[in-house]
């Protein structure tokens, strides 16, 4: 079970309560910008904004950003440390009909909640919806509108689909009864949203508001930066958990290429090159595998190579 479940006190036609869950750790200035954008939503209904402090003390002063219809409260992660436990801790406290996830460094556009609630209410078969996003890179901004209104399980196996991002997902809270909670056994919590979406698309329909409604910061340090071996371990876990990757040559090669890149940048050059070779045997045009081979060369700086490749668009999504 997901917890107490949604409250059902709304009168007919009243916009439903949306529970927004924000895991945070050590980024108070960025979190403030995130909160200001959420409080400023043009959605006519109420929002409860649950800040989940992960392995840090609660900051009770964040409640000062509350206003009528926009209640902010802070809790501790009472489950496994990391993103999965933090998201599940927030879910257990949520009282809304809908659950919206957001990271503590990203910014919603004013119409984001309203547009997603409208889409979910218009199609009861939807388990989850994302939106188009804008990637804020160190030197530029990259528009990434959602290409399709419905994202299939097959597409998710072949492509990460960035428009389904941990900072823009909204789902009926009942979706967790069908797809399960965030997986707290996932190593280091990496790709927790991707794992959940793979499960959701097996049991239901996932879609997106196609216009850009969220800014995703790629110009700030990530908890996963410089922890490449953690990334590799999580991706290997995903391959074992979702064996249908192996039935899709291109998708399997994509994950193998990402593992190869992570192993090489983590100092395991020989092991990474072997995995890159496996990826290229599966799909010779696999871009992640070629990126892994490139960064294995002497003198290549992985972050610069990755940043340059991202400018090419969706090839590495």
Give a description of the structure:
This protein is an alpha/beta fold. 38% of the residues lie in helices and 19% in strands. The chain is built from eleven helices and ten strands. The protein has helices at residues 28-39, 83-93, 112-122, 153-158, 175-179, 192-203, 228-241, 249-265, 269-282, 287-295, 302-310, and strands at residues 18-24, 47-53, 70-76, 98-101, 107-108, 126-136, 141-144, 150-151, 170-172, 205-217. The strands form two sheets. The protein has a five-stranded mixed beta sheet. Strands 5, 6, 7, 8 and 10 form a five-stranded mixed beta sheet that branches. β1, α1 (28-39) and β2 (47-53) form a beta-alpha-beta unit. The longest helix is centred in the C-terminal third of the chain and has 17 residues, at 249-265. It starts with 17 loop residues before the first strand and ends in a 7-residue tail after the last helix. Mean pLDDT is 91; it is low at 1-11.
Class of secondary structure makeup: alpha/beta
Record the strand order, biggest sheet: 3-2-1-4-9
Largest sheet properties: 5 strands, mixed
Number of helices: 11
Question: What is the helix content?
Answer: 25-40%
SSE pattern: EHEEHEEHEEEHEHHEHHHHH
Integer average pLDDT: 91
Total number of strands = 10
Question: What would you report as the Rg, rounded to the nearest angstrom?
Answer: 19 Å
User: Strand fraction band?
Assistant: 15-25%
Shape: globular
Spatial gap, N to C terminus: 33 Å
* Poorly predicted runs: 1-11
């Amino acid at each position: 079970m997901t917890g107490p479940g949604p409250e059902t006190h709304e009168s007919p036609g009243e916009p439903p309560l949306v529970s927004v869950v924000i895991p945070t750790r050590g980024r108070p200035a960025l979190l403030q910008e995130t909160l200001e954008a959420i409080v400023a939503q043009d959605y006519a209904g109420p929002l409860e904004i649950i800040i989940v402090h992960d392995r840090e003390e609660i900051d009770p002063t964040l409640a000062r950003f509350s206003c009528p219809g926009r209640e902010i409260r802070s809790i501790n992660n009472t489950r496994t440390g990391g993103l999965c436990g933090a998201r599940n801790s927030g879910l257990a406290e949520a009282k809304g009909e809908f659950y919206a996830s957001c990271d503590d460094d990203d910014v919603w556009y004013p119409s984001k909640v309203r547009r997603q609630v409208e889409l979910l209410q218009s199609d009861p078969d939807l388990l989850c919806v994302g939106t188009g996003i804008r990637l804020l890179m160190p030197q530029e901004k990259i528009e990434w509108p959602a290409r399709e209104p419905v994202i299939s399980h097959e597409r998710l196996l072949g492509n990460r689909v960035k428009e389904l991002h941990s900072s823009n997902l909204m789902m009926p809270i009942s979706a967790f009864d069908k797809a399960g909670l965030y997986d707290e056994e996932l190593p280091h919590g990496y790709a927790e949203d991707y794992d959940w979406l793979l499960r959701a698309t097996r049991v239901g329909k996932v879609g997106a508001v196609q216009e850009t409604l969220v800014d995703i910061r790629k110009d700030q340090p990530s908890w996963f930066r410089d922890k490449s071996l953690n990334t590799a371990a999580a991706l290997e876990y995903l391959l074992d958990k979702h064996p249908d990757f192996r039935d899709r040559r291109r998708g399997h090669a994509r994950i193998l290429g990402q593992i190869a890149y992570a192993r090489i940048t983590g100092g395991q050059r020989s092991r990474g090159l072997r995995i890159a070779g496996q990826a290229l045997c599966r799909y010779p045009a696999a871009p992640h595998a070629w990126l892994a081979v490139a960064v294995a060369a002497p003198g290549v700086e992985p972050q610069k190579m990755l940043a340059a490749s991202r400018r090419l668009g969706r090839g590495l999504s």
